[in-house]
Every structure is written in structure tokens, then in C-alpha cells.
Amino acid sequence: ATLVLTNANSTGVITATSFVGNLTGTASQVTIANGADNRVLTAASANTINGESGFTFNGSLASIINSSGPTLELTTNTNSADASLRLHEGTTGSTTNGGGMFYSGADNKLHITCGTNLTTKRITITRDVGLIGINTDAPSSAWLDIAADIGTYDHLRLRRISSDSNIASNWSFKPYGGHLYFREGGSTDKI
């Protein structure tokens, strides 16, 4: 059965299986502009929602597309907070098995992380001077500060990869016991 009301006034709740028509009077009518499949909706005004053509999400893939270069900006509203990007396995909020990066407002450094605990700092860049630390979150006194707490790895390796053995090169440097060792192509110390 259909009930048609013309110029009806009601105080209280009206329920129905469906309503037809637009809201008028003191109620605001909300419209959606640029609607299309998978577009992310943003508020364009108090009464308009916009489907962003350059920002889509299909349930598993978020895409930001902009011909002048897309930007994903993570901003904190205090100087002492961190802005973080995490890439990891497992459940939401997990900090295991992954990596990422975060800018620390507390110490003014950009940290790149990776490991079984994705908060393990692997590379650090200072904001004010641009010092780079590898395996240290406090680079100092050098533009590139490489720290190691075990002696089994060469600390700095320079390589030229080629199938031609006359061109291929493999040099490494290793500080140990107050000395700097230089190796060429193997584990034999040269200096």
C-alpha cells in the first residue's frame, strides 16, 4: 500500500522502507560530485562530497595519481612526535618483520628501519647538517658514519661488477684493533 502525504507536518520519527525525493526546508541536501568506482570521497563544502579522481582505493590497493607528481604527506602537530610509514607482515599495528621510515620531531632525524622488529634503526639522516649514519642513530663528526659492533663483515665495500675479470673489482676496508685493513677481491688483508 502507498500512502501519499501532501504538505504533511510531523513532530517525531517517521519510518519507512524507503523515501523518495529530496530533503527540503531546514535540512541540508548533500550531493556527491565526480562519483566513480573506488574513488576516495572528501568534503568539498558543508553540503558537497567530492570523488577524488586522483585518489582511489579498491580494498587492497591505494593509488595517488597526479601528473605533476603525487605527494603523500604525514604530518605531526607537535615538535616532539614522530611521523611514520610502516611496511610489514602480520596484523595491523604489528611491529614485527618489516621496515619503514619515520621522522622524529624529538631529535630532528629521519630514520630508515628494517628487521624482525621494524623499529630497528638502520640508516639515520640528521635534519640540520645532513650527516648520514649506517647502523647508528647518532652520526657524528663525518658526513658518512658507519658503525659495526662485530668484526666479521667488511665495513665498507666498493665494487665494480662485470663478467670480465680484468674489469671486475672488489675492494673493502675494515677497521680493526686500531688499524685500517684494505682487501682486494678476497679475505686477504693487503695493508
Uncertain regions spanning at least 5 consecutive residues:
none
**What best-fitting shape do the alpha-carbon axes yield?**
elongated
Helix content: under 10%
Largest sheet: 6 strands, mixed
Q: Please state the average pLDDT score.
A: 82
- Give the DSSP E fraction (strand runs of 2 or more residues): 35-45%
What's the tally of helices? 0
Structural notes for this entry:
It contains no helices and 13 strands. The protein is mainly β and 191 residues long. Strands 5-6-7-8-9-10 form a six-stranded mixed beta sheet, with no helix packed on it. Strand 12 and strand 13 form a beta hairpin. The radius of gyration is 29 Å and the shape is elongated. The model has no long low-confidence stretch (mean pLDDT 82).
